[in-house]
Amino acid sequence: MSQGEAGEGKDEIKPTLSPYEEAMEALSSLITKRSRADKSNKGDKYELLFDYIKILELEEPIKKMKIIHVAGTKGKGSTCAFTESILRNCGFHTGLFTSPHLIDVRERFRLDGMDICEEKFLAYFWWCFDRFKERATDEVPMPTYFRFLALLAFKIFAAEQVDVAILEVGLGGKYDATNVVENPVVCGIASLGYDHMEILGNTLGQIAGEKAGIFKRGVPAFTVPQPDEAMLVLEEKASDLDVHLEVAAPLDASVLSGLHLGLEGEHQYINAGLAIALCSTWLQRTGHVEINYLEEMTHLPEQFVKGLATAALQGRAQIVPDQLIESESSGDLVFYLDGAHSPESMDVCAKWFSLAIKGDYKQHNSYASNHGHNELGPSHDSVEISHHEASKKSSTQFLLFNCMSVRDPELLLPRLLRACASHGVHFQKALFVPNVSVYYKVGTSASTADTQVDLSWQLTLQRIWENLVCGEKGNDVKNTDHTYEEVTDDSEKGAQSCENSKVFPSLPVAINWLRDTVRKNRSGRSQVLVTGSLHLVGDVLRLVKK
């Protein structure tokens, strides 16, 4: 049933939900329609987490779990993906909890490298949800959305008796739901930068203080090279808690025996170095290894190399040809997806995109392609081949962008534009769209069918972009507010067009416009960078992989 049909019959018949959709409705009921910086909700009291753990009878199981806990602004998800892949390749039964999900909430809970199956998810979900529902009071209300998911992860990992649980902090560290862990085996702090400042503070020192909240007395911790201001705070907090804090060196590519990391981009060598340190320490502290891999950095065990080469993470430096256009002709519309959303990660994303579209990221000798191992659908190889076939074609670059209103586009967009320009990449048009999924719903019903979407934020992004591009070209920027054309073309209904950009009322309309553009220009190929928001990346994946 289409959303339109479902909407028309809303008053008479309520559509029957599948068991999974019922669970998504229940999960959606836990989302508070409020900014994350608002502390007025009773469910935000941190100490409630310990009541929740008692309700789920998880106190002892969590104490027994052999946990690796990772915080950071950028790279914590990648570090966790590398860590899980290494330990799985060492033969351990792994549990990985990450956020956010891109297409399906089950992506947050991975067992042995695979999303938890629907059957197990539903069994654990209702066990936890019903228990909370039965015992909810004014003093201990239902847990909020992210807290529930973190508690569910603990339940899943305890029941599945994983050998190692790798937990990615959701936000900050000190007051994150994952931080109920009192005795992890080892902690990691990935690169720090400016993000979520409305909650974590305005200086790198304040942000570092929040992240260091995951340090536990006497538990070893690793970080990566950090700005001085952040490093000083991390060292101070570590010293207070008798934590042995070490800086993990970035991985030297030469130890990979000619293979590539499973995750793209030079910055991944930093995350891989941190993952190696975390895994080595975990193996030593759990009595699984005699060798100190950290001192043997000139040689990595084969399981480590395989783990690093086959690690996979959706929405980070991911290349996906459009399935619809692909079926019509080869490689004419390719999406380059990266969930970068901080100023520093804009630089990294721009560099990756600029090199990737020039075909510099060859994957032919990667472990994944040599061993037919690819968890994320179309491999980079298939993209390379279609690029090769299309190499006689001229290419055009587009930007598809949105970011949350708590982020500062005045910081993000200039970084992106200038970093791309420094690599000789200039976007023909920037397309700004609202996210398809709404923040207060999870599951298939989470896409908004509302035609009256407020586009004021996207128009703000457009204005910033036009000023930037005109500034770069040295044009007069005074009239950018008046360059809108009302568009009559059907595929662009309601689009607001400027010289260098368009605002579309929805993502499907923007993607249809891109497809029509490609169809009209058979001799060219379109390369679309999708960035600014992991939610946007997830929405695009959902649409182009159909």
Detail the topology: elements first, then pairings:
Elements: H1 3-8, H2 19-28, H3 48-55, H4 59-64, E1 67-71, H5 76-89, E2 94-97, E3 109-111, E4 114-115, H6 118-135, H7 145-159, E5 164-168, E6 186-189, H8 197-200, H9 204-211, E7 221-223, H10 228-240, E8 245-247, H11 268-285, H12 302-310, E9 318-321, H13 323-328, E10 333-337, H14 343-357, H15 367-370, H16 380-389, E11 394-401, H17 409-422, E12 429-432, H18 456-473, E13 485-486, E14 496-497, E15 501-503, H19 507-520, E16 524-531, H20 534-544
Parallel strand pairs: 1-5, 1-6, 2-5, 6-7, 7-8, 10-16, 11-12, 11-16, 12-15
Antiparallel strand pairs: 2-3, 3-4, 9-10, 13-14, 14-15
Helix pairs in contact: 2-6, 5-11, 5-12, 6-7, 9-10, 14-17, 17-18
Give a description of the structure.
With 546 residues, the chain is an alpha/beta fold. 40% of the residues lie in helices and 12% in strands. It is built from 20 helices and 16 strands. The strands form 2 sheets. The chain has an 8-stranded mixed sheet, with helices on both faces. Strands 9-10-16-11-12-15-14-13 form an 8-stranded mixed sheet, with helices on both faces. Strand 14 (496-497) and strand 15 form a beta hairpin. Helix 9 runs parallel beside helix 10 (228-240) and helix 14 (343-357) runs parallel beside helix 17. The radius of gyration is 24 Å and the shape is globular. The model is unreliable at 1-10, 35-43, 360-390 and 477-488 (pLDDT under 50). Its EC number is 6.3.2.17. Mg(2+) binds at residues 99, 168, 196. It comes from Solanum stoloniferum.
